[in-house]
Amino acid sequence: MVKAEIFEVGPRDGLQNEAGVIGVAEKVALVDCLSRAGFARIEAASFVSPKWVPQMASSGEVMAGITPAPGVGYWALTPNLKGYERARAAGCDGVAVFAAATEGFSRANLNCSVAESLERFAPVMAAAVADGLPVRGYVSVVTDCPFEGEVDPGAVARVAGALRAMGCTEVSLGETLGRGLPERVDAMLAAVLGEVEAGQLAGHFHNTSGRALDNIEVALARGLRIFDAAVGGLGGCPYAPGAAGNVATEAVAERLAALGYDTGLDMDVVAEAAQMARAMRQQ
Ligand code: HMG
Ligand code: MG
Fold first, then answer.
1. Distance between CA atoms of 80 and 118, rounded to whole angstroms?
2. 53 CB less than 6 Å from ligand 1?
3. Which among 54, 119, 124, 176 would be 20 to 30 A from 2, CA to CA?
4. Ligand 1 atom nearest residue 80's Cα
5. Domain range spanning residue 167?
6. Strands 73-77 vs 94-100: parallel, antiparallel or unpaired
7. Which residues are designated catalytic?
């Protein structure tokens, strides 16, 4: 079987969007459960401004509370050097910077232009290289933007190429709104592949219109083998009005298995984590 990786983002992309306050102990329990499921990487934290995303304010405590499992990397979002320093102090194994393909989303999510966001990431990259930590780069709104509508694939390719050129080891393509049609995802990928190799790309699909699994198949056909997903379909983005959850890890794992890809996940443990995630959502 061909290997494919699910990069679990539930504890971050999922829980950042929950309306209710979720306690540190519950977050720690979710990450610890996920640690037993066979993921190589879990996005467990986000060191953004707590004024912007209060749900992630406890990220340092979550990182201090988890029981790291051998072979599992614990990753975090870092929008700037301050976030990177917090992630480093918390013992993260990798960090992610995040840019957007449109000016409108960049302004809403990071309070700056796309060019300014890339400038802010440069010192994060330098510090991470010095510390030997890998950096993932996200591009948000790769097909549709809540502020600007349909997104030019060329703009996505430029930002993806810039992230790769500054040293990101992997670029995750965020279909933030979850409304992207497979044809448009395919056109976007064709453009991005002119700048970044398939092996260095990940697909990050939300599932508002129920097309995320179709979009994953399109990405598989283009050579991508890494997919972000959240157990229980948790999630959304606080700065993307109307966006629903991430595609559910359990659904992606099942589809990948049906297509002959091996994710190495223990589906019983994934189901246990999905149940915990759904219970958190109901709070
Ligand atoms: P700003 O207000 O322009 O920046 O925010 P600032 O530098 O003036 O900072 C404001 C306050 O936050 C200051 O505190 C800073 O010290 C503090 P004050 O002086 O007022 O007391 N601050 C921080 N505190 C802790 N950690 C930090 C940090 N940085 C500043 N790292 C900023 C600019 C980038 C900070 C803000 O816009 C921000 O935090 N944005 C993050 C938004 C976010 O997390 N969005 C969701 C994640 S992205 C996503 O979900 C998409 C993705 O899933 C892919 C997809 O689906 O597309 C990845
Ligand atoms: Mg997302």
1. 10
2. yes
3. 176
4. 31
5. 2-281
6. parallel
7. 237
**Interval between CA 48 and ligand 1 midpoint (Å):** 4
Which tens digit of pLDDT belongs to each residue from 128-181? Answer: 999 999 999 999 999 999 999 999 999 999 999 999 999 999 999 999 999 999
| Lowest-pLDDT choice from 14-23, 221-230, 236-245 | 236-245
Q: Structure pTM?
A: 0.97
Longest dimension (CA), the chain: 45
Q: Is 143 in the pocket of ligand 1 (CB under 6 A)?
A: no
Whether 13 lines ligand 1, by a CB cut-off of 6 Å, is yes
Q: Which helix (H) or strand (E) holds 58?
A: none
- Domain with residue 205: its CATH number is 3.20.20.70
Q: How much distance in Å is there from the Cα of 172 to the middle of ligand 1?
A: 19
Cα separation, 186 vs 10, in Å, equals: 25
